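Cross-check.
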Amino acid sequence: MKGFLEKVPIKRRWIRIEVSCSPDYADDLSAEIAQTFAVGVEITEMGVCFYLHEDGFLADGRERLERVLSDFRETWRIDALPTYSFSSFAEDDWLEKWKVNFKPLRVGKHWIIAPTWEEVHPGPEDSVIHIDPGRAFGTGHHETTRLCLEWLEGWSEAQHDASSKSLLDVGTGSGILAIAAALLGFHQIVAVDNDQEAIEVARENIALNGVVDKIVLQIGTVADVQSRFDVILANIQALPLIRMAGLLVRCLKDSARLVLSGVLLEQQEQVQAAYEAEGLKLCSRNIALEWCLLVFE
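Predicted model, tokenized:
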């Protein structure tokens, strides 16, 4: 018989918010929302979507969102205010949706990205990354994440040994890129994110892959990072990447590589200009559909 003082876990409820807007503005709007609410934002065919705790949304989240949309309309001189809709669901419903849509995926030459509930049969040269994404973005299915994984794999092969290299993962999300770096042998890895939920999910995934002792998780932004690194990965979006150019550059060691993803092809020139103004040189570019990955030295 349970004691009457025993705590029963409380299942949180979530709000999915979908904002309709033109594809021309989706990337910039998602950056504004991400900065305001400190959450991951997904770009969809209709606009953008993101998730908030139900209590936070009901408290002041709706008012803050409407203020963001109003300011965004004025800044970009849009004729009509972007519209939004929202729906509520239980935390368990979220997890079940992921299980339906998330299947094992092969990326690059040797990566297999696998959810914890799916059985995989890797080859002798394969590396399996087990991911339970929860409410954080980063399953390897999006082009921007795949570009980063492919670059990491190719660069580490060219180096022959990554054990002397350090890496900073900015906006770690599910932790997938930091985990990949650990499996490749990077010796000092810091993963930073301003979303506490993402940090919690990343911590669980890092444990799943047995690399707890190789990755330091940090809540905050790149402004809070004090060390310098051989490689910096920032898979975010164009607008925040432009804004944080100076901060990212100060975290680079001499002869380091800065890898930027989450950039649409039509945004490359703006992002490139921001980092060239900081003294960096674009040394390579990889493309997947409408997205590009930029590597600076």
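The chain has two domains: 13-95, 138-296. DSSP finds nine helices and 14 strands in the chain. Passed to J.P. for a second look.
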